[in-house]
């Protein structure tokens, strides 16, 4: 049976209601075995500890602007947790804490919540944990569930965000800040944990600033979530979910590789999630060794056009045909088109038009495009034109998950190969198959790494709130070492920020961590890509392992970035 839950639908009158939650009785053996899988904690979190302030912080860029936007929080130090004696230990007290999941699903989110819960049970007996339902809108509307051991249990070490669900709403207008503050006051919240990506953590910091400026006692702590892997810094080495999602996609890519080799008749064009950075695509390439991998950041650095990208793929296909291979696997990051300078220009013109003009069916709006952008827009297949015009997400981003770049590239490569065939420069057969691996990887069973990392992030968020900190993001480091040696702290969110132009205005943003062309993961890939293109060195890693010698293996990107060899 699913547990009964105390829920509120916005009027703050808590009622007993049956949960629509999970039935662990329907779980497979593997899922069941994960429920009681005990998670190791970093040593520092297991005994008496002290929270130690570091030096004053600055910003990732434009510190003067950030200081103006965050007058209460700018400059505050990041903190580290170090072993302490029982005398200096935080006095146990009952806390009221809220937690919210924000943005796209990422494996491990449930473990962050159970990590916070376990901290409160271990060190702050009598505390209450409120789960705001449906993302930040749940805070504004006062929709929450009181989380109990029975309610949480079926979600332990399980994927998905359905324990409390997520949403992409933003708390941004004065009215919305007021609604959030009202909820914090009504529930007498000591703290709020925002589990989200770069935009959501920016929002968490704005909320922390707003609450501080109103002298509310509610502190706000962020947690780094996103399968995209682009929320990271020196102190926050990775976002949770990336490890599991990449392992799931790598399994799927490996299967497609075996399929390609088995029949020898298809080129599989696989688009992978990651709306801005190409980390997922790069990691999957390192895990599986495909014939072609496009990395958006490289395409941008080389100022490549759509034609250049098409020619590069066609060149590999032609060379492979000479070896008798009329099959292969090509990985494409979903953010690719946003990296191609000519498309970038088109998208930024479209953004301005969509923000300020009515898009009429007669196409008069098109006159606002520059001649180059108009030419490109008219050249694109109609399906892609329509996808580029779709509504932006609440943060002003193009919804790249809805743009079928893989289909567009198949069409363009096919046309190019036809031209080469006519010129007797290509004698092979080309059949493209398109795939999009995105949502499939976001709710899988968290890998051992993500399960443990998330538990530590949640537990650390509990410590940070208990010690009265606000405007920090929970940070766990030294991740290639055994868990006992992981370091734990909180990084000042303002130290990760810069300003950016969005919806025609300057806004604070956490700088996205893109694939670095001088970084170890990209260099590793470059050192091997020519061999992968022509030989079939495919690796099919199979499903994620939860027990056995490879179960605790960390993804290649993280290891290489931490200076290890793979
Ligand atoms: P977050 O940045 O919120 O973690 O989401 C990332 C992501 O999974 C992208 O990879 C993808 O482009 C996008 O979400 C899809 O969004 P939606 O779930 O709204 O379709």
UniProtKB/TrEMBL annotation:
Pathway, per UniProt? Carbohydrate degradation; glycolysis; D-glyceraldehyde 3-phosphate and glycerone phosphate from D-glucose: step 3/4
What does the entry report regarding how activity is regulated? Allosterically activated by fructose 2,6-bisphosphate.
Record: residues binding substrate: 226-228, 265-266, 273-275, 334, 439-442
The Phosphofructokinase domain, residue ranges: 96-461
Per the record, where is site Important for catalytic activity? 225
Species in which this protein is naturally found: Salvia splendens (Scarlet sage)
Binding, Mg(2+): 198
> What name is this protein filed under?
Pyrophosphate--fructose 6-phosphate 1-phosphotransferase subunit beta
Cross-referenced Pfam families: PFK (PF00365)
The cofactor(s) it depends on are: Mg(2+)
Q: Where in the cell is it found?
A: Cytoplasm
Q: Name one GO biological process term.
A: photosynthesis
Could you say which enzyme class this protein belongs to? transferase
Nucleus found in the keyword field: no
UniProt xrefs under PANTHER family? PYROPHOSPHATE--FRUCTOSE 6-PHOSPHATE 1-PHOSPHOTRANSFERASE, PYROPHOSPHATE--FRUCTOSE 6-PHOSPHATE 1-PHOSPHOTRANSFERASE SUBUNIT BETA 2
């Amino acid at each position: 049976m699913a547990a009964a839950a105390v829920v509120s639908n916005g009027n703050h009158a808590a009622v007993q209601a049956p949960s629509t939650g999970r039935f662990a009785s329907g779980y497979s053996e593997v899922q069941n075995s994960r429920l009681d899988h005990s998670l190791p904690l970093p040593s520092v979190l297991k005994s008496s500890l002290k929270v130690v302030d570091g030096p004053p912080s600055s910003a990732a860029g434009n510190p003067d602007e950030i200081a103006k936007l965050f007058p209460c929080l700018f400059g505050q130090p990041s903190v580290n947790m170090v072993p302490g004696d029982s005398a200096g230990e935080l006095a146990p007290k009952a806390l009221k804490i809220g937690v919210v999941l924000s943005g796209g699903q990422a494996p491990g989110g449930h473990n962050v919540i159970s990590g916070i819960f376990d901290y409160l049970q271990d060190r702050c007996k009598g505390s209450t944990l409120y789960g705001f339902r449906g993302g930040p809108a749940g805070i504004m509307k006062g929709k929450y569930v009181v989380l109990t051991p029975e309610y949480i249990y079926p979600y332990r070490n399980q994927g998905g965000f359905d324990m409390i669900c997520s949403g992409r709403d933003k708390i941004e207008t004065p009215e919305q800040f007021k609604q959030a503050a009202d909820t914090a006051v009504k529930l007498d919240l000591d703290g709020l944990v925002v589990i989200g990506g770069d935009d959501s953590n920016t929002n968490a910091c704005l909320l922390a600033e707003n609450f501080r400026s109103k002298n509310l006692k509610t502190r706000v702590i962020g947690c780094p979530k996103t399968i995209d892997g682009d929320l990271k810094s020196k102190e926050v080495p990775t976002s949770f979910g990336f490890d599991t999602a990449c392992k799931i996609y790598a399994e799927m890519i490996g299967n497609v590789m075996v399929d390609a080799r088995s029949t020898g008749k298809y080129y599989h064009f696989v688009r992978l999630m990651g709306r801005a950075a190409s980390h997922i695509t790069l990691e999957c390439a390192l895990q599986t060794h495909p014939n072609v991998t496009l990395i958006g950041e490289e395409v941008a650095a080389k100022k490549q056009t759509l034609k250049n990208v098409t020619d590069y793929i066609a060149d590999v296909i032609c060379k492979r045909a000479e070896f008798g291979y009329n099959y292969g696997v090509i990985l494409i990051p979903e953010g690719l088109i946003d990296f191609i300078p000519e498309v970038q220009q088109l998208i930024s013109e479209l953004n301005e038009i969509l923000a300020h003009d009515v898009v009429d069916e007669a196409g008069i709006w098109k006159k606002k495009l520059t001649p180059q952008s108009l030419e490109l827009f008219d050249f694109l297949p109609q399906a892609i034109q329509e996808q580029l015009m779709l509504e932006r997400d609440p943060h002003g981003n193009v919804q790249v998950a809805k743009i079928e770049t893989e289909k567009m590239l198949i069409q363009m490569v096919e046309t190019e190969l036809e031209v080469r065939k006519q010129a007797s420069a290509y004698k092979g057969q080309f059949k493209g198959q398109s795939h999009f691996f995105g949502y499939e990887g976001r709710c899988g069973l968290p890998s051992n790494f993500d399960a443990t990392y998330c538990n530590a992030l949640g537990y650390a968020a509990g410590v940070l709130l208990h010690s009265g900190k606000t405007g920090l993001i929970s940070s766990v480091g030294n991740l290639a070492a055994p868990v006992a040696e992981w370091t734990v702290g909180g990084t000042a969110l303002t130290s990760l920020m810069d300003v950016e132009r969005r919806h025609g205005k300057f806004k604070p943003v956490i700088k996205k961590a893109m694939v670095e062309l001088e970084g170890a993961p990209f260099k590793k890939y470059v050192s091997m890509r020519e061999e992968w293109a022509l030989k079939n060195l495919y690796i099919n890693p199979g499903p994620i392992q939860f027990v056995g010698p490879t179960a605790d293996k960390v993804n290649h990107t993280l290891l290489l970035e931490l200076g290890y060899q793979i």
